[in-house]
Design brief:
The chain is of the alpha/beta class. The chain contains 7 helices and 9 strands, in the order βββαββαααβαβαββα. It is about 35% helix and about 30% strand. The longest helix has 15 residues. The protein is globular. The mean pLDDT is about 85.
């Protein structure tokens, strides 16, 4: 389980505190894949970052006995002044790899961006950044009980998405997912349950179809 104990998250503005979450008390199971649903600006990425320890609540706490991953997302973690190869080399060294060439080649082969792999990341399109970040996220064998995915799988054309999906299944078939995606078919395909962000709180649905229905009735129709 992942426990939210009277958790609040807010940002200071000129008009006072803007609450993203307020006094959240809920327990989320870790034996099922869960989709995070909510409109733009509701706090989906903030929630993922807090569960992964990349951000902290202003009040209360989030805790679990399970090994939860850091947020794996499309745009985060790449240093713009460095090339994709240099980013891959840097991350590999952080993870204790003395010989980084294999990791560099794996990321390059997966990302399929050709000569741009050795150009500064700041010159990349958003799609190229996405491919590199996905490839970098997949280049290591992680030992997590739960993976936090923030739009990680929504990259590239149909062929690339199929390859990405295949790699996700291969690498993380034994782990559970908590994921954000704007693709409802992707969420239905990967997840069995859902969490809807509504009224600065989290609402759990044991059935993903019920979560999507509630979300669409509130925010889409």
């Amino acid at each position: 389980m992942i426990y939210f104990d009277n958790m609040s998250k807010y940002y200071s503005t000129k008009q006072g505190r803007h609450y993203v979450f307020k006094n959240v008390n809920i327990s989320l199971p870790t034996d099922i894949n869960i989709a995070i649903l909510g409109p733009n600006g509701a706090g989906k990425s903030t929630l993922i970052r807090m569960m992964g320890g990349a951000d902290m609540p202003n009040k209360g706490r989030i805790y679990s006995k399970k090994n939860i991953s850091w947020p794996l997302g499309l745009q985060g973690g790449l240093q713009g002044s460095m090339s994709a190869r240099e980013n891959a080399r840097f991350v590999a060294r952080i993870h204790g790899y003395k010989n980084t060439k294999l990791i560099e080649q794996q990321v390059a082969d997966f990302a399929e961006i050709g000569k741009f792999f050795d150009e500064p990341v700041k010159t990349y399109s958003s799609g190229m950044k996405s491919k590199v970040t996905f490839g970098l996220s997949m280049a290591f064998d992680f030992n997590f009980d739960v993976l936090l995915l923030d739009e990680l799988s929504a990259v590239g054309d149909a062929t690339f998405r199929k390859k990405s999906e295949s790699l996700l299944k291969e690498r993380f078939g034994k782990t559970k997912l908590i994921m954000v995606s704007h693709s409802m078919p992707e969420l239905k395909k990967q997840c069995q349950a859902g969490v809807l962000i509504k009224d600065q709180n989290l609402h759990y649905f044991a059935n993903i179809d019920d979560a999507i229905k509630e979300y669409q009735e509130m925010y889409v129709n």
